[in-house]
Design goal:
Layout: E1 5-9, H1 16-29, E2 36-40, H2 43-51, E3 58-61, H3 78-83, E4 86-91, H4 94-99, H5 104-117, E5 120-125, H6 129-133, H7 137-148, E6 161-164, H8 178-195, H9 198-201, E7 205-209, H10 217-221, E8 228-231, H11 238-245
Parallel strand pairs: 1-2, 1-8, 2-3, 3-4, 4-5, 5-6, 6-7, 7-8
Helix pairs in contact: 1-2, 7-8
Bound molecules: 1,3-dihydroxyacetonephosphate (13P).
Residues 9, 93, 165, 170-171, 209-212, 230-234 line the site of 1,3-dihydroxyacetonephosphate.
Length: 247
Amino acid sequence: MRTPIIAGNWKMHKNVGEAIEICRQLDELVADSPVEVVVCAPFTALSALNALGLKKVKIGAQNMYYADQGAFTGEISPGMLVDVGCQYVILGHSERREIFKEDDELINKKVLKALEVGLRPILCVGETLEERKAGNTEQIVVDQTTKALAGVAAEQIGEVVIAYEPIWAIGTGETSDGNDANQVISTIRQTIAKLYTAELAGQVRIQYGGSVKPGNIAEFMEQSDIDGALVGGASLKVQDFVGIIEY
Ligand code: 13P
């Protein structure tokens, strides 16, 4: 059985005080949930969240560089994230790929480095609207998954969480329907089975992301291959995020 994982991606929202307030409340409200709960906050809030000693909610980052240290102005190292209590890091989000021009090779380096230092990557894959209309969805996610996982050892693959986020569904209110998302996610799982084994693929958790709300989460969670959600906008309000976690 795969433990469901619901992660909030706060993107570039919330100052330190707001982050503390939300995580304190969230930690109490979901204390007894069987679901693994992660908040991926801005870098500036991570240290303060770590100091709260949260019992249930785990802390994640939204990006990192792959070098240990050095002359990389403006970047954050994997070790720095571990140092402030992060257990997860989102890698390859479509906003990083599109706005900051991250390619599969860079994302692969980050995935390998995250695993090396003991951070669990939440690896994002997904197609644009044009790619979907052209019928290329499956090819795109297979390709992104395969390239990002190059060199990941069989013993490490169970640490990786994959988030299928169709880019046209992010922040738009449009969602993939449950069946459709499940089909793409089962293709991702088959890809992992080909790269590793069916047994290992059965251990990897794969989330859906893109306009997930309290009102539509159940449609995704009832699917056979969907193990959780990566939530943007609706993770910024405690009540909405709790509503999703309590699907
Ligand atoms: P929304 O939930 O706001 O659509 O964002 C999804 C997302 O990008 C999570 O990483």
